[in-house]
Write a structure and sequence with these properties.
Blueprint lengths: L2 H16 L5 H16 L3 H13 L8 H13 L3 H13 L8 H13 L3 H13 L7 H13 L3 H13 L6 H13 L3 H14 L1
Helix pairs in contact: 1-3, 2-3, 3-4, 4-5, 5-6, 6-7, 7-8, 8-9, 9-10, 10-11
Length: about 200
């Protein structure tokens, strides 16, 4: 999942919750309220502003600099969502920002420490692939396990896959359990893996 798709999905939820789909006056007042809240060190409000300026709205054009500025504020004010977005941005790079996996790791670590499940999942991937950090399957598994425990189906699937493929000590029982849990948490790959593993057991 890239930073734009992550921001886009969060932004859709944000619009529904805040009523920014209403009249122009309402949108302006909500935007002003978010800015005031962000200035009061509300990290989630800063995150919402970052999402708005990442995607843009009918009356608010996208602004990469403002989006980054609000994401930085949000992370500083302990919004795990903002920290994860910054991690993705640094991991993927852009026309104006070169890839920096060490910064990405730092932001993912903070997001995970704030119990933001996607931060843990992305951090697990960094250690699984060795992207800018020493490849470490045990660390990857630990972060996937935390993401799974926080209710992130993809984290459960990633851990199940590690057991199924023998990246960790091969353990079909754990793989089946985790794949089933991933499926229950709406992970499509988890459901497929669970069906495949269940078929092998029959």
């Amino acid at each position: 999942m890239n930073v734009l798709s992550l921001a886009g999905s969060l932004f859709t939820v944000f619009l529904a919750l805040t009523g920014l789909t209403g009249c122009e006056d309402s949108r302006d007042s909500e935007l002003a309220a978010l800015k005031a809240s962000c200035e009061q060190h509300n990290g989630d409000s800063c995150s919402d502003l970052s999402d708005i300026y990442t995607r843009g709205t009918k009356d608010t054009p996208p602004d990469t600099d403002l989006a980054l500025n609000y994401a930085l504020k949000g992370c500083e004010y302990d919004s795990g969502r903002s920290c994860a977005s910054l991690g993705i941005l640094h991991a993927q790079g852009s026309d104006t920002m070169p890839k920096d996996f060490l910064k990405a790791r730092d932001y993912f670590e903070k997001a995970c420490s704030l119990n933001y499940l996607l931060g843990c999942d992305y951090l697990g991937f960094q250690y699984l692939k060795g992207d800018g950090v020493p490849q470490d399957y045990l660390k990857a598994a630990a972060f996937f396990e935390k993401a799974c425990s926080l209710g992130e189906g993809q984290g459960c699937y990633n851990l199940a896959s590690m057991y199924q493929k023998g990246v960790l000590a091969s353990n079909k029982g754990k793989a089946v359990f985790l794949a089933r849990l991933a499926c229950e948490l709406d992970s499509e790959p988890g459901c497929k893996l669970y069906r495949d593993l269940s078929g092998l057991e029959q």
